[in-house]
Amino acid sequence: MKNQKVALITGANRGIGFETAKQLGEQGVTVILTARTLETANEAADKLKQQGIDAYGINLEVTNAGDRKAVAKYIEDKFGKLDILINNAGVNAKDSGLFEARTIETTEEEFQYVFGTNLFSVVFLTKELLPLIKKSEAGRIVNLSSILGSLTLHAQKDSPIESLKKLSYDASKAALNMFTNHLAIELEGTGIKVNSAHPGWVKTPLGGDSAPMEIADGAKTSVQLALIGEDGPNGKFIHLGEELPW
Description:
With 246 residues, this protein is of the alpha/beta class. The protein has a single domain (6-243), classed as NAD(P)-binding Rossmann-like Domain (Rossmann fold, 3-Layer(aba) Sandwich), CATH 3.40.50. The chain contains eight helices and eight strands, in the order E-H-E-H-E-H-E-H-E-H-H-E-H-H-E-E.
């Protein structure tokens, strides 16, 4: 158990988060699945346990400081370290889809809700867990971003994401990419690698039924970045092994 890798995946009760936990578990990683309620987290962990995966559930509302501290204490008491942190939990605006652009009319409430989960909670959870990650021989932090956070692609003429200008969501992912860049540089020399992952356009409640990718493929980038070796990327924006423009 001492040498077995331990991973925490936020928002892991369904979709890409659950599939990420499953794929890591299938490779022998102990996985901790978080969800907003303990019951939901345990139900997800139990599904993996039935497949022979070493899985645990814990409740975590990522925007709640008390929950973040409780998760850190749980990991410290039970495992003494954390090898992999996958900041998977994310939201879109409550009342509209990714295709509805309303840049100047974006409300303060929408900004606070989207940034609260997609950026601020990632920063603060990572800060809470970093002492445990530093105890790992090869700590890995994976931030679930989106190609919609690429300023380079949004600025291109005839951009492939031209129609997807949802300011609150896109800006939150661009800011998350900046966090990845800054933290990776700050942690150089520690053995910890920090990367942003674009999972792809995946059939999830957020991605919708029109998405071309299945959930199993959507989890692959996170899993790959969680298990990279010493020669793997650091401070990069990656999709299925390919680097994306910031």
